[in-house]
């Protein structure tokens, strides 16, 4: 028997995240692949396989074209790369709006085929009933209010929401309905500080903000945004790295080395063993 002990790392659970309401801020980032998830895992409480992958990884102009199969494939990769963070997977546009049974069947597919612990849905007016149905049947759900990227074809742009009284009241109500339906936490996207604070104070579930001020119980960013992968960065993003420039420099240097025959060098080359020579 081997004397080596295998380190067992327990994943953060849904109830542990819910219990963080008003406590230590929740750290969430989006993740789409195994190696990046492995780098982020020790530092994050939640890894969100967001449908933002349509834009951030696949070059789409919105999240509308993202499919269930894409979410499952990326979800499996993130689960393979991580061992500690709670993994939540977005239900893509069209996979939960037709009715509670459609939503349940697709949520179960996501959980069974990836091993992730929870799904996230964008909480349009019809969605709280779906959240309640899923939660009652064993599917943990994270809600999402404010700017809803899957509604881009209704809204026409990705502008911040809730800055006028009527919309403010509608988003506040939507957050209440989402929490009352049993969502274990609620993402608030693209709203003014006052509304984010009001929601966070009003609901018993932790709020996780993106472009929604420091008033929330936690924060999330789209990882390629905060790593500086794109030439444009929204106002609410802080760039923690400049990977676009870094990758550009690395590839430029590689290309110059190949063209000048500086790469590969002897140390990067395999040679036949002496005994193998004729
Ligand atoms: O898809 C996503 O990355 C998200 C975050 C913006 C919260 O939903």
Describe this structure in words.
This protein is an alpha/beta fold and 278 residues long. The protein has one domain: Alpha-Beta Barrel (TIM Barrel). The chain has an eight-stranded parallel β-barrel, surrounded by five helices. Helix 5 links the parallel strand 3 and strand 4. Helix 6 packs parallel to helix 8. It starts with 13 loop residues before the first helix and ends in a 19-residue tail after the last helix. The mean pLDDT is 95. The structure holds 3-methyl-2-oxobutanoic acid. The site of 3-methyl-2-oxobutanoic acid has 12 residues, from strand 6.
Distance between the termini: 46 Å
Radius of gyration: 22 Å
Quickly give the CATH architecture: Alpha-Beta Barrel
Approximately what portion of the residues adopt beta-strand conformation?
Answer: 5-15%
SSE succession: HEHEHHEHEHEHHEHEEHH
The CATH class assignment is Alpha Beta
User: Can you count the helices?
Assistant: 11
Structural class per helix/strand content? alpha/beta
CATH homologous superfamily - what is it? Answer: Phosphoenolpyruvate-binding domains
- Give the % helix: 25-40%
Find the CATH topology: TIM Barrel
State the shape: globular
Ligand set: 3-methyl-2-oxobutanoic acid
Taking the sheet with the most strands, its summary is:
8 strands, parallel, barrel
Count of the separate structural domains: 1
In terms of per-residue confidence, which ranges show pLDDT below 50 for 5 or more consecutive residues? none
Number of separate strands = 8
Q: Could you give the order of strands across the largest sheet?
A: 1-2-3-4-5-6-7-8
Average of the residue pLDDT scores: 95
């Amino acid at each position: 028997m081997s004397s080596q002990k295998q380190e067992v790392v327990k994943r953060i659970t849904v109830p542990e995240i819910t219990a963080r309401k008003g406590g230590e801020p929740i750290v969430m980032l989006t993740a789409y692949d195994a190696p990046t998830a492995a780098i982020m895992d020790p530092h994050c409480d939640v890894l969100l396989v967001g449908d933002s992958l349509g834009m951030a990884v696949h070059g789409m102009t919105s999240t509308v074209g993202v499919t269930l199969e894409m979410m499952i494939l990326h979800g499996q990769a993130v689960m393979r790369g991580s061992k500690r963070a709670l993994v939540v997977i977005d239900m893509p546009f069209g996979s939960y709006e037709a009715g509670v049974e459609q939503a349940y069947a697709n949520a179960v597919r996501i959980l069974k085929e990836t091993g992730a612990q929870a799904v996230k849905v964008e909480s349009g007016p019809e969605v709280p009933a779906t959240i309640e149905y899923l939660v009652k049947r064993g599917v943990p759900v994270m809600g999402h209010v404010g700017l809803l990227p899957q509604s881009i074809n209704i809204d026409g742009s990705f502008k911040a929401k809730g800055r006028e009284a009527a919309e403010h009241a509608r988003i506040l109500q939507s957050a209440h309905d989402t929490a009352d339906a049993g969502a274990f936490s609620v993402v608030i996207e693209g709203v003014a500080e006052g509304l984010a604070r009001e929601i966070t104070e009003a609901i018993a579930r932790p709020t996780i903000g993106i472009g929604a001020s420091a008033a929330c119980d936690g924060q999330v960013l789209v990882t390629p945004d905060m790593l500086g992968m794109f030439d444009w960065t929204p106002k609410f993003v802080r760039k923690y790295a400049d990977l676009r420039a870094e990758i550009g420099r690395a590839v430029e240097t590689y290309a110059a080395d190949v063209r000048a025959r500086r790469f590969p060098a002897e140390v990067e080359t395999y040679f036949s063993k002496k005994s193998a020579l004729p």
